[in-house]
Specification:
By secondary structure, the chain is of the alpha+beta class. It contains twelve helices and 13 strands.
Length: 363
């Protein structure tokens, strides 16, 4: 039987020792719940989040971070737990997808059951599992004692084995736009090329350029650019420099002109597109730098022997246009089946209804 225990105070040595002790934790599409990602994230935080450790017969078999925060709606407030998040925006901005407990997939269901049993004893009313690919495991474990709400997020990916050339599987319209964009940019700026940052100096240069472009586009948005956040930068730089087989910076140039830089996560034969800096200054009616960047990324990784290029979650037109498959992941909100949990559920339902009615009156 698997037992779960919450550690609120522990050292870095404790954490890395526990991480190394766990057997068979990886899944083939893991970009996030891996030693590289978890180690880099851990090192980027000054305040360590509580850690749940799973054990069986005195052997550590899994772990998961569990942050806590307070939510408020009107005059009503409640406490909630967050799976693999801290509740502190500075640390959570790196975000996690394919969210799961770090354990052997064969025992993940049992670990989830153990975590929910433990969470039921906490002074929280809600547990949030963001961006889960295997939400059915959580739903199966939670149904009896927790009320379940879910939000669906769509992702897109390219099966790199499905065709020998990217251009062939695209729709007629997308194929035309990509071919036109590539032709136009090469006429204006020069032949397209792909360059990977291999040395420390190249990584520093590419990261600096990616950061500057990203901040220029997103700094004034609601949540800003992650590259304005020192913890975000620390996490990614640690990942790039200490785990070069799991993260890399790749740039596309047209002649000497930068088209864009992509930061990609690597999981064996799969590639996850994490973020990019796209040079929209060269964009015009024909030149679409985003299409160019990803078209060349897809070709680059196919030639490198990779099997899948995952755009990760977040819908956009270019992703769906370039993808061979669309998939979904879910964010689950589990509220306790008690009076406070029921009130949270009702308040959220009323808020959503009010929003829908408000949107309807605008149309």
């Amino acid at each position: 039987m698997i037992q779960a225990k919450l550690l609120k105070a522990y050292s870095a040595d404790n954490f890395f020792g526990l991480l190394a002790e766990i057997a068979n934790p990886a899944q083939s599409n893991d970009f996030f719940c891996t030693i590289p990602w978890l180690t880099s994230w851990f090192k980027s935080m000054d305040t360590l989040p509580p850690l749940v450790v799973f054990s069986s017969n005195s052997q550590v078999v899994g772990l998961v971070f569990l942050g806590f925060m307070e939510s408020k709606m009107s005059l009503f407030s409640w406490k909630k737990g967050l799976v693999n998040q801290t509740g502190i925006q500075t640390y959570d901005q790196v975000w996690i997808e394919y969210n799961r407990i770090y354990c052997d997939p064969a025992i993940e269901q049992e670990c989830i059951c153990s975590l929910l049993n433990l969470a039921s004893t906490f002074d929280i009313d809600e547990l949030v599992v963001s961006m889960s690919k295997h939400s059915s495991l959580w739903i199966r474990a939670a149904t009896k004692f927790w009320r379940i709400e879910s939000d669906t997020h769509f992702g897109a990916k390219v099966d790199l084995l499905s065709t020998n050339e990217t251009i062939k599987f695209l729709s007629k319209n997308t194929r035309y736009q990509v071919k036109r964009a590539i032709k136009a940019v090469e006429i204006k700026y020069g032949k397209l090329s792909v360059s990977k940052a291999n040395t420390s100096s190249d990584k520093e240069k590419f990261f600096s350029e990616l950061s500057a472009i990203h901040k220029k586009k997103w700094a004034s948005s609601e949540f800003g650019s992650g590259f304005q956040n020192p913890s975000f930068n620390s996490h990614l730089l640690n990942l790039l420099n200490e785990f070069s087989h799991n993260a890399e910076l790749v740039a596309v140039f047209s002649g000497e002109t930068l088209v864009g830089i992509s930061l990609n996560l690597i999981a064996e034969d799969k590639v996850g597109f994490y973020c990019s800096g796209i040079n929209y200054e060269i964009a015009d009616k024909k030149i679409k730098p985003g299409y160019i960047l990803h078209s060349l990324m897809i070709e680059y990784y196919r030639d490198a022997g990779k099997k899948e290029y995952d755009f990760l979650a977040g819908y956009s037109q270019y992703k769906s246009s370039l993808a061979t498959d669309i998939y979904s992941i879910e964010t689950l909100r589990l509220t306790k089946r008690n009076l406070r949990g029921t009130l949270i559920h009702l308040l959220r339902s009323l808020k959503q209804l009010f929003f829908k009615l408000k949107q309807k009156t605008k149309t």
